[in-house]
Amino acid sequence: MKSVFFELILNVIMRMIGGKSYCGEKLKGVESKEFRQIVAESFRLGGASNLVDFLPVLRWIGYGGLEKSLLVLQEKRARFMQRLLEEHKTKMSSDEGKDKNLDGQGKKTMIEVLLSLQESEPEYYTNDIIISLMLVILTTATDTSAGTMEWAMSLLLNNPDVLKKAQTEIDHQIGSDHFIDESDLAKLPYLHCIINKTLRLYPAGPLLLPRQSSEECMVGGYRIPRGTILLVNMWAIQHDPKIWEDPSEFKLERFDGFEGVRDGFKLMPFGAGRRSCPCEGLALRMVGLALGSLIQCFDWETLDKGMVDMTEGPGLTLPKAHSLQAKCRPRPTMLKLFSQP
Ligand code: HEM
Known about the structure:
Blueprint: H1 2-18, H2 30-46, H3 51-54, H4 57-60, H5 65-93, H6 95-99, H7 110-120, H8 127-158, H9 160-173, H10 189-201, E1 211-212, E2 217-219, E3 222-224, E4 229-230, H11 234-238, H12 280-297, E5 298-302, E6 326-330, H13 335-339
Antiparallel strand pairs: 1-4, 2-3, 5-6
């Protein structure tokens, strides 16, 4: 399921950035293939260890290792994004582009917004800055959101009563005459609880981003000198038995009446402060819509009808050790909607 979730997020983000989708059955062109290779390579290298960090002597004998591969990849990614940027510039300056936005729906893509800013502030919004912003959004959005969807589906498969309750909520609040859309999400508190609970148990940024102390300070009785690199173990806070009753349990009732996700700094799957995730709202909508649609449209079970293995694997974004595989069947109540053109 992870690869399907991954492609979904890539498509959403690439449409937001450049007005185009790159993954899926219908998109097997050269550009799409190149894009997918870049993404696959980014994740392969992003999760790899750098031998030179452990044996610096290797650098003196000219061993390039991971750094060399990363530079090659960076060039490929920048070239790809540069082409997308140029394409936008050409279209925006053409007569056709002047009256129409590139996604054809009257909404501006991120590149269009950034190119307009380039016109008013060219010294800040250089092509390099625009390309870096595109790459940052792409890399931070994908693995985190797709991983959260995979953990949430795994929890639902292991807790069929919760899955049933979520289906009932959707049936009552939305029905089967239209597919769930963004405006429906506010009517689905139980689905929201499932996502919150998933983010507590399996936060996609378990150590947040590293911080550095700007001044000497005391934290939990420890003296922290100025300039120390600090990691916040959010995973440990969100599993702390002193704060949470039965911290490993999937108890949805715990979130009844719960507003927002930063419950007194006990639950911060999107971090906090100036470095917190700027796309929390978008992420919650994407995860909510994807999960909501899967629950609304299909009945689910595991391949062997057994339990999903919930072992955590190594990696920065807390991946599952074993990817989730599941079977789905369209729900009879949704068949009419599926058959509509
Ligand atoms: C369920 C999905 C996601 C989770 C759990 C998540 C979580 C996080 C966390 C924990 C951080 C570090 C915050 C801190 O250290 O205080 C972060 C940073 C960030 N996230 Fe997300 N994120 C998700 C989805 C997204 C999406 C969809 C985007 C963009 C479209 C995004 C863009 C970013 C960026 C750009 C940063 C870095 C902010 C900075 O450097 O100051 N994230 N995210």
